[in-house]
Write a structure and sequence with these properties.
This protein is α/β, with parallel strands linked by helices. Helix content is about 30%, strand content about 30%. α1 packs antiparallel against α2 (about 25-45). It binds 1-O-pyrophosphono-5-O-phosphono-alpha-D-ribofuranose (PRP).
Length: about 210
């Protein structure tokens, strides 16, 4: 079973309550997604390798550390786009590759409509970004796409995960750690996370 990290940080919890609130407007919603993403990325990158570098301060030379691994951000369109800025705030040099999946409303299966990956992997770690992990279909499919393409280390960073979808991811891709701000218990008959926050893509882009 893959590692599951659910944040209990007060700042994450505070922002998540605002994000869930149906009265939160598009602009505020985007801001909260960005901020929560930054806080979760901080945890998801905890084990990145560093290497020593010599730094000259105004007073003396000392040893500092710089990231020794290249990170790729893989937002799942559309809603994953909202998490990119938050991740970039921490790692402005991260490459971004987009994967377009939309969930068929009847079957709830993901349909791939866009993929923009270089010929072979150019990074050491891929961070998949998608605020919602519901049935897990989109996350599982994205990991499979990245593995077929040759990615070795993959992590999933979401905001809300539903227990059934999280368990599916853990079964199908036990090597992919999952980072969330909340784990909700249920999906309704339409595959929406309950209590969740509604449709993240629609709330972010004002298309509800
Ligand atoms: C939502 C969400 C995830 C997916 C989660 O996207 O952002 O990508 O559904 O559901 P799953 O775990 O059951 O696959 P959607 O397909 O609605 O597309 P959108 O982001 O363009 O709104």
């Amino acid at each position: 079973m893959s590692e599951l990290y659910v944040s209990t940080h007060p700042l994450v919890q505070h922002k998540l309550a605002l994000l869930r609130d149906e009265k939160t407007d598009c602009r505020k919603f985007r801001e909260l997604v960005r901020e929560i993403s930054t806080l979760l990325i901080y945890e998801a990158t905890r084990d990145l390798r560093t290497e020593p570098v010599t730094v000259k301060t105004p007073l003396a030379e000392t040893t500092g550390y710089k990231l020794a691994e290249r990170v790729g951000l893989v937002p799942i369109l559309r809603a994953g786009l909202g998490m990119v800025e938050g991740a970039w705030q921490m790692m402005p040099g991260a490459e971004v590759w987009h994967i377009g999946l939309s969930r068929d409303e009847k079957t709830l299966r993901p349909v791939e409509y866009y993929s923009r990956l270089p010929v072979s992997p150019t990074v050491d770690v891929c961070l998949i970004l998608d605020p919602m992990l519901a049935t897990g279909g989109s996350a599982v499919a994205t990991v499979s796409i990245l593995k077929r393409w040759g990615a070795r280390r993959i992590k999933f960073v979401g905001i809300i995960g539903a227990r059934p979808g999280v368990e599916r991811m853990q079964r199908e891709h036990p090597d992919v750690p999952i980072y969330l701000a909340a784990l909700d218990e249920e999906l309704n008959e339409h595959g929406f996370i309950v209590p969740g926050l509604g449709d993240a893509g629609d709330r972010m882009f004002g298309t509800g």
